[in-house]
Amino acid sequence: MPSDRFDAHLAKDSSMPSTPAAQASDLFGTLTFGGDVMLKRLPSEVFANLQRTMQSGRPLDPAIANTVASAMKDWAIEHGATHYCHWFQPLTGTTAEKHDAFLSLTSGGDAIERFSGSQLIQGEPDASSFPSGGIRDTYEARGYTAWDATSPAFLLKTETGVTTLCIPTVFVSYTGEALDKKLPLIRSIDAVNRAAMRILGIFGTDAGVERVIATLGAEQEYFLVDEELAEARLDLRICGRTLVGAAPPKGHQLDDHYFGAIPDRVMGFMAAVEQRLFELGVPVKTRHNEVAPSQYEIAPVFENANVAVDHQMLTMHVLRATAPRFGFRCLLHEKPFAGVNGSGKHCNWSISTNTGVNLLDPRDDTHTNMQFLVFLCGVIRAVDARADLLRAAIASAGNDHRLGANEAPPAIMSVFLGDMLTDILDQLQTGRTTKTRKGGSMDLGASTLPQIPRHASDRNRTSPFAFTGNKFEFRAVGSTAAVAWPTTVLNTIIAESLDAMADELEKRAGANPTRTKLESAVRALLKATVKNHRRICFDGDGYSRDWHDEAESRGLANLRSTADALPALKSKSAKSLFSKQGVLSGRELDARYEILAEQYATVLGIEARTLVTMTRTQILPAALRHQAQLADICATTEAAGADCPDTVAELRETVDRVSRLRRAVSELEKAESSVSEGADKALRHARERIVPAIEAVRAEADALERSMPDDLWPLPTYADLILP
Ligand code: ADP
Ligand code: MG
User: Which atom belonging to ligand 1 lies closest to the Cα atom of 301?
Assistant: First the structure.
């Protein structure tokens, strides 16, 4: 963005804090109704009761609700809250909240603040305006929210200083079917727990373990652009991405932005975001410049997946809400700028016992760590067997611009393991596992520098699903995604796979096997699993053409668009998986397909209409002014008796371009207005008609932008928006 705007903004807002006022550890969780506050404010037996639900997954005891509600209300009011809301994650992919005041009237007409246990436990928002994917008719309006005590309530403060008590809830229909993303997530967390506990039971390592917890740490990439410039573009305002725009003269070719010095104004923004997130108990840890100019990243310390998912939604909210204070617009879209690096959300995932043992930690002598190898092979098996569902879980109109569009990671699902584990898989396949490759240390060749340890494996940026030391990193998730859904799918397919491994082990080893019998059953199972599912493992360059060919020969799917990916959710086998694991009924899964398909078509419809408007009201008029100027030059030059063949040629070219743009925009209008009934048709129509029509308009518009005088071009350019 131009530096004068930056300076003007700094001058305008001298109250801008440059660093948070307090230590992170002092601020941490001050706006959450967490352990410390509860301990102070709840009677000890109520506290213990609630902790049992929060820590060990015991059913919530409704008898404690009144006491908890009253303590929560007092605490919230002391912090300035006047209202409470049930905060939930409907299938729109955002969060929803309906506020109610604590204020109520006594029978004598006196105003008091009241919040009862039943108001805490259950709410009744009108369900008819939320997508239900056919589960409900619009006239069947009743829906319920139900308190999820395993995710702490928090106070959401707006930039204007209004404070609301937010209670994380799940959202179901009158018939009890999940209308949100959280209920299936919580069910999937239970499914992984059940299956993983079976494996621990077989190995006899379940003693003292109450449950296995899925853990999640989601790194968020985003762009910051000047708010005034973003306001000047209808596409950024409505779609969150640019629908036209020629590539800037400099992108990230010099690799000088990644990890570069963070500009002051951005740093001020990051610190303010972190401060707010610390208060909300979101443990954000890492911040840095990303690959593209004006692109950044924020990453938290991992937490249990349920809380991490809520915290991820809050992170996106706080990023967006804080940006205007610094004159920024925060763009979370997967591809705000064509030809410039896109944004993803890297979902780091693992499973650990409630006693803190990470089950995906290979430890030193990995080749002897049979339990780890069973979990590892369980993940490999899941990703191979259910690659289609994992792909469907990250499909969206925005993510189509990254996956399968010459950008990493590719739309082909594969697993990166690294040298150390690949070597162990080789050993497993040939029979005996005898050694674990070590990383060792590196001598940097300068006596003043220390020797530094080297990991046993390198990293791979191009893999959609990479093992990174003691966790998997699902890198293909889109930057706007609500991570509940991909995490739900991941948990579910892994639960299925671990169940299958446990079945197999029980069958091979029998009841109460001796150590030797168990070990030979494990070896046989691992060998077979590696043999059957190794095709999904790929450590090479995921961006390369060769990989596409290789993947095809291995029989791996390359589902380039949402329209190709979503139908996997409709398969019989998907239905049986989700219902068997107790995560989604057939109807609930169908509903997700319908809603995701409709969202894809709706997003493209909105993009199409936005582009038509911009083209007709801004780009074509500007191009015609340019054409008129050229015509004027030709006429006056010729009238003065001189020839101007170059300008005449340019005029002709412009006339041609303008008429091509007119034709393209008419085509787009036609495609957009031909309605397709039903999710299947809408998906195909969007992919086959709308997407190419948008691209065709864009090609002409971008060519015009490149050839027109800067003062006539009606939109802020890429250079204005993202170059320093
Ligand atoms: P890396 O060096 O691979 O980037 P980091 O330690 O920086 O690893 O972690 C990246 C992200 O992965 C962070 O959000 C972190 O909290 C998360 N993470 C680390 N360990 C786990 C785990 N066991 N489960 C889930 N997420 C994890
Ligand atoms: Mg990472």
Answer: 16
Three-state SS at 413: coil
* Global pTM value: 0.94
Decide if 372 contacts 366 (C-beta within 8 A): yes
The closest residue, in CA terms, to atom 8 on ligand 1 is 468
User: 702 CA distance to ligand 1 centroid (A)?
Assistant: 40
Report the candidate in 131, 127, 125, 146 with the shortest Cα–Cα distance to residue 94.
Answer: 131
Atom number in ligand 1 closest to CA 346: 11
Shortest CA distance to 382 belongs to which of 507, 489, 502? 489
**Cα dist. 386→197, 290, 551 in Å?**
22, 31, 16
Are 258 and 292 in contact by the 8 Å Cβ rule? The answer is: no
pLDDT digits (tens, 9 = 90+) for 489-537: 999 999 999 999 999 999 999 888 898 899 899 999 999 999 999 999 9
More confident residue, 142 or 181: 181
Q: What is d(CA 265, CA 573) in angstroms, rounded to the nearest whole number?
A: 51
Q: Residue 678 corresponds to which tokens in the numbers above? A: 């039903």
CB 638 within 8 A of CB 271: no
User: How many angstroms separate the Cα of 706 from the Cα of each of 228, 244, 340, 633?
Assistant: 23, 11, 17, 20
- Spatial separation of the C-alpha atoms in residues 395 and 64, rounded to whole Å: 41
CB 508 within 8 A of CB 250: no
Q: How confident is the model at residue 13 (pLDDT cuts 50, 70, 90)?
A: very low
111 exposure class (CB count in 10 Å sphere: 0-12, 13-18, 19+): exposed
Tell me the pLDDT band of 10, cut-offs 50, 70 and 90.
very low
Ligand 1, pocket residues at CB < 6 Å? 215-217, 219, 299-302, 348-350, 358, 468, 470-471
What amino acid occupies position 392?
Answer: A
Of the bound ligands, which one is closest to the alpha carbon of residue 351? 1
Testing ligand 1's pocket by substitution, the residue of 213, 277, 302 carrying the most ligand atoms inside 8 A of its CB is: 302
Identity at 130, one-letter amino acid code: F
Q: Ligand 1 test: best mutation among 471, 477, 494, most atoms within 8 Å of CB?
A: 471
* Residue pair 576/499 in contact by the 8 Å Cβ criterion: no
Q: How far is the CA of 34 from the centre of ligand 1 (A)?
A: 23
530 backbone dihedrals φ, ψ, rounded to 5°: -60, -45
Where is average pLDDT lowest: 63-72, 378-387, 510-519, 564-573? 510-519
CA separation (Å) from 616 to 60, 152, 630, 675, 681? 58, 49, 21, 22, 28
What is the spatial distance between Cα 127 and Cα 255, in angstroms, rounded to a whole number? Answer: 48
Question: Cα–Cα distance between 410 and 114 in angstroms, integer?
Answer: 53
Q: Per residue in 173-231, pLDDT tens? A: 988 899 999 999 999 999 999 999 999 999 999 999 999 999 999 999 999 999 999 99
CA of 477 to the centre of ligand 2 (A): 13
State how far the Cα of 211 lies from the Cα of 670, in Å rounded to an integer. Answer: 56
For residue 333, give both structure tokens.
């879209």
How many angstroms separate the first and last alpha carbons of the chain?
6
What is the four-CA torsion angle of 131, 137, 138, 140, rounded to 10 degrees? -110
Mutate to test the pocket of ligand 1, among 301, 312, 315, 348 (most ligand atoms within 8 A of CB): 348
Main-chain phi, psi angles of 66, to 5 degrees: -60, -45
Listed in sequence order, the residues at least 6 apart from 314 whose beta carbon sits closer than 8 Å to its beta carbon are 154, 277, 280, 282
Closest alpha carbon to 350 in 526, 443, 469: 469
